[in-house]
Amino acid sequence: MLQRARYFLFALFALALAGTVPALAGGPDYGTPAWSTQQLTLFEGPGGVYDTVGTIAADQAVTVYRCTVLWCVVRSGDERGWASLASLSFGQTSADPFSGPRLNYGSGGPGEICFYEGRNYTGAAVCAGPGQVFGDLLLAHIDNRFSSVSVEGNVSAAVCRDRDFQSYCQRVIESQPVLNRYLDNEVSSIRVY
How far apart are CA 157 and CA 106, in angstroms? Predict the structure, then answer.
């Protein structure tokens, strides 16, 4: 009897899981934006021992889904596979791998910029003025929470997807009722100017 109950629970779990796969496959693209710094050879798995499944030209925008120590799953257009992490740049351009954005904007002020957990300036908010820096929002337990931003006065902010101003960054100079898809609920570092 116990064996049948286990089999039944396993079958229900498998059916529930199978029902979610098509929904995930057709969903929006939520990877991290990056660039190919040279032509990428794509493999079926993380390493050159796997079969080649395609290529992506140099200086192309790619989406990175996940990485191991040396390899990442990437996509550009219809091409998808594992590529060498050393051939990817997570900066603003493909020029300098891992350089991050150049955040040398002039100071502003007076003014204040507020980040809201909800869209259209709703929910809990964190406000800051010129000179305030949040290098890792995870330390304040507010990582990946913000969906909108309001700008009051002569201020702007560098807003980045990853801690320490890495990966995709955007300079915010005006209020946004909804952050773009790369930053919506994905902000991990902020510097206010």
Answer: 11
pTM above 0.90, yes or no: no
What is the dihedral sign for C-alpha 141, 143, 148, 154? positive
How would you classify the pairing of strands 79-84 and 122-128? unpaired
Is 122:92 a contact under the CB 8 Å cutoff?
A: no
In this structure, which amino acid lies at residue 30? Y
Residue extents of the structural domains in the chain: 32-89, 111-192
Q: How far apart are CA 146 and CA 187, in angstroms?
A: 7
- The fold adopted by the segment(s) 32-89 is SH3 type barrels. (2.30.30)
DSSP reduced 3-state for 108: coil
First vs last C-alpha separation in the chain:
67
**Residue 89 structure tokens:** 């740049």
111-192 — its CATH code?
2.60.20.10
Residue whose token pair is 């660039």: 35
CA-based nearest residue to 48, from 86, 83, 74, 15: 83
As given in the structure block, the two tokens for residue 20 are 């979610």
pLDDT in tens, 64-109: 888 888 898 999 999 999 999 888 887 666 665 444 455 556 667 7
